[in-house]
Every structure is written in C-alpha cells, then in structure tokens.
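Thread: quick sanity check before group meeting

JM: Hey all, I'm pulling together slides for Thursday and realized we never actually wrote out the predicted structure for the chain we discussed last week. Dropping the sequence here so it's in one place. If anyone has concerns about the input, flag it before I start.
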Amino acid sequence: MVHTPTKMKARKYKTKVKVRVPFWRRWIDGIKKRSKGFLARRPHRSLRRTYRRDYVRSLRLPGYWAFTVQVWRLLMANKKLFGLLALVYATLSALLIGLISQDSYQSLSDTIRTTGADLFQGGWGEIGKASLLLASSVTGNWNQPLTEAQQVYAIITGLLTWLTAVWLLRVIMAGGKPRLRDGLYSAGAPIISTFIVLLVLVVQLLPVAIATAGFGAAIASGLIDGGGVEAMLFWAAFTLLLMLSLYWITSTLLALVIVTLPGTYPFKAIKAAGDLVVGRRIRILLRLLWMALIMAIILLVVMVPIILFDAWLKGIVPAISWVPIVPVLLVVVSSLAIVWISSYV
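JM (edit): ok, ran it. Output follows.
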C-alpha cells in the first residue's frame, strides 16, 4: 500500500511531543497525590467533628483477659520452641552485652536494707525492699554504662529475637510446625527494614523524652511544689507530650510486625499500620497498656520472690554472696518478656 502525501502529512502532525517536567514539579505533584490519598483514607480531621457515617470501627477481638489467655495458651502449646528462643537470646545477651553488675546490686541492696530499716518493717517491708530493688534494675541503676559495641549488640540481638518470634508465630498460626533453627536462619531478612521502623519509633518517643527532662527540671526548680498556674500549665504540657507519643507509637508497633512480610518496605508498613488503626486507635492503645500492666505484674510476681530468696540464702551462706543469682535470672525473665510482647503485638 502506497501512502499519499496527504496521509503522510496528517500522520506527521499527529505525533506527540514529550515535554520534560522539571523535577521540582514532579516532587510537588507527588506530595499532593500522597496528601490526597492520605486524606481519602483517613476520615478524621483535626479540630473538626467526625460524623458517625464516617466511622471505621470494625475490630473483632476477644476481651482483655480472654485475649491474654489466648496468647498464653499459644505460647504454652509451643513452650519448648519459644523457651529455646528465650534461652538463645539470654545466652547472647550474657555473652555479648554482659550481666547486670553483681557488685552494684549487692551495694544497692545493702544500702536499702540499712537506710530503710525504719521505713520498711515486717514482711511487707521486705517485699517493699525487693520491689524497690527491682525498680532500680528496670531504671538501669544496676548497670554500668554500655560501650558503643555493647549497644550495637543489644540492638541486633533484640531485633533478631523479635523477628524470629514473629516469624515462628506466623508459621504456627498458618498451621505449620517450624523449628527454631528455621526461624533463626529465615527471620533475619527484613532486619534493615525493621531497624528503620524502629528508628521512626525512637523519633516518635522524643516527646516523652522532652516531658521527662522537663519533669526533672520542674522538680529541681520547685515548680511543681509551688502549685498555681505554672504547675497547671506544666502538667498540661506534660500530658499532651505523653499522649502525642502514645498516639504515634500505637500504629508503629504494628508496623514492626507488618514490615516482616516479604517485600514490604518500611514506610509502606508504617502507612499500612496507620490505616489499620483508623477509628480503632484507642482500643488498640488500651490493649497495649494492658500488655504493659500484665508484664509489670508478671515481673513483680516472678522477680520479687527471687530477690527475697537470694537475700535469705546469702544471709545464711555468706560465702556465696558473689554468685549472680538475681542478674542471671533477670536476663532470663527479660528474654521471656520479649517473646511475650512480640506474641501479644
């Protein structure tokens, strides 16, 4: 077929000329597109009423205690698997990071026993001393400052334990029977993505850090003791900063699980977790606070008798005062706590 000049000319005029869009224009268009998508997915607006027709509240979960029992039964059904995981994490922590200083623990114990003789009396007084020692361990008063290498080891071992627990739980809930070896070999793939989400979580906890620093400054300056408008404004700002961090980390904790899915990028996981908690944030936050309360109760129920037994045993046999019974068992209990928290989340 021979093309006539007229057709060739028409075809010539139909060709489209590609216009190169500046990079800043593409960047602005991308921001607008993401903003529209964000507003389309989120029915709530700041300082505006959300109508009932826009609520997203479907979330079928058991009650607080029933859900806790469900998690406990899942772990007990696989107690050998998760017990070995906690043991591996405790061993790595002891070898790479080190135990809590036995000398610091003994010194603090003697100080509390000496200075608190009048304050703590009777059986409940001994429980109060043990609880105070446990609180000191949680706040880090037993520990020597960690070196940079120990901090890196702590982050890596914690992330690997979290990833392994999540991987094992996913396989178990899918009907499989995994081995710990398979979890240790396979769960570490998304460690970089998980670390990025963890960095976002740390940034979201900055308001809590600011509130804590402000609380210390307010106590030192006597602002809280003075009362009045200044104290009221301080507590209002403290509460707002605390609620802001809680608001943010509610979805980011779920993102730490979502990011372990194969091929999931960290900020995609954060976006998906934010979409999941829309209209459900308060209920999920309350469950996370319930998890923290349960962990605190378990820590008290387990560690306080151990501290009392350690004090009683070393009072009878002073020759074994150097044996780090409490530091070793505290590492084991902390390892079990990480497995419990990952299972609950």
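AS: nice. The mean pLDDT is 78. The two ends are 70 Å apart (CA to CA).
JM: adding both to the slides.
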